[in-house]
Amino acid sequence: MACALCTYETNKLVRIHSVRLGSLKWSLNATILLGICLVMLWNRKYQHFDQVVSSVTAKVKGVALMHLPGQGGVVWDVADYSRPSQPPVSGRLCRHDNDCDTSTWSQHSNGIQTGLCVKFDALTRTCEVTAWCPIETKTRPPRPAVLASAENFTVLIKNNIRFPAFNFIRRNILPEMDDAYLRSCQRANDSLCPIFRLGDVVRQAGQNFSQMAVEGGVIGIQIKWDCNLDLLTRRCLPRYSFRRLDENESNKTLYPGFNFRFAKYNMVDGVEERTLYKAFGIRFDILVFGQAGKFSIIQLVVYIGSTLSYYALTTVLMDWLIQTSCYSADVGQNYGEKKVESVEDGKKGVLSVSYVDQDHIRVVKMSLKRRLQDANTVAVETRREDAGHVTMAVSVLQAQVDPRPVLKPDTERQSWCGCGRCTASALPQEELCCRRSEGPCISSSALFERLVLHRPLLEALLLYRDPLSPAPAATSGHSTATLRHCAYQQYVAWRFGVPPAATCPAIPRCCVGRIREEFPSPDGRYSGFTLANATPAITTQD
Ligand code: ZN
Ligand code: ZN
After folding, report:
1. Which residues pair with 54 in a beta bridge?
2. Neighbours of 358 (CB within 10 A)
3. In the CATH hierarchy, which top-level class contains the domain 51-88+136-294?
4. Ligand 1 centroid distance, CA of 496 (Å)
5. Could you tell me the pTM of the whole model?
């Protein structure tokens, strides 16, 4: 037994010479390679990527005239309508002062509670609060929106980005964009123009500005940077897209739209007054995202390594195909049996059977219940000639030996026998004919006489194997049992050549009968062909 450290095992391959399978393999591999290359180029799998780091400022321009009830026309300019955003308030019902807390504030009240329970109207009492008087009452936004002309306002977005891994800095206002360009650029025909008309932004987000202006809303201006920093294909330009970010169905949402409050203060007769505004507006959120990629040999190697496994798909498909019985039948080859070499346990009684009318040797499983002639074929093997035996046979055939007449008369014909010379046996594993179809028996051929039954040949063979054994002439010669076994071996070497590995060659009933007739046991008893002696060996028959 060789030590495990001193040996190397490798897979054994089966090469199938087939134009169909060969071309199928190459077309599958070519398809997989094409797919891998396309994905690599399309997704730039050969690049190392870094995420964008960015800062954004926006500058709104535009003036609007607004008509407020009771105040007349008011001009709104940038300082009035641009506000930082604020997050988005009734009285608390009570019966006694105990129900009201002191100096607390709740999310739904308008001021700080004083701790007193006061009469609100004829039926209800509420907690008194310290608050601006009067408290805010109106909750419905005005229709149409007061600042509807804001649709024509423009916003200039300034976006500076950086990819730290590549130390690459860029602005959305490109170096070639000068003052004259920024004054005149139109987004309708220039997708890189950083100046946006609010109406256009809302429309491109799929919304209606005058409808949206009533309850307010949030529009996302998305700036996507997808940069390729490789020298030959260098390209790093922003792509703008627009999307509404809040719920746009006001009847389905609890707090629809977007609004915030702000106040203007003034002193009237020494008392501070304020004008509280609840503004319903459109907020623009500028979202910057993106990545930059640059060629990296490590990424390329990692990608190639990860794709190698796809070539196994070819093997899986081809193996499935050659094992499919319909394909095998189509090409007249059973590749599945060639691909898998089955090695059975020697004691299991795997037999090989050779028929005169068939070129191949069949491997069958021995059963004690089933006739060997009808046994299921496990595999079909090509006959491998035993070169030494062929040489011997040819030299025997060149020598002039008179063929002897066939002595054995035709026996009663068995249903499973095709040659008409097989006799019935008590052991089903012995019921094997020399052929599948009907025809002459191999034991009746002249060659059988000269190769298997010819006593001088068998004695010469025995002497060849054991040169020091007493010469047949000097003694009574070899026992008939020895000659009989030698004849069986001759038959096997002739009909099987080298029998398939780990199988035990089975000798047809007609030939066994003919050999026993020539070299009979003195007491007329034979052990027969049993599972015990059906182990892979040459001598199997008594
Ligand atoms: Zn027969
Ligand atoms: Zn026969």
Report:
1. 161
2. 14
3. mainly beta
4. 18
5. 0.53
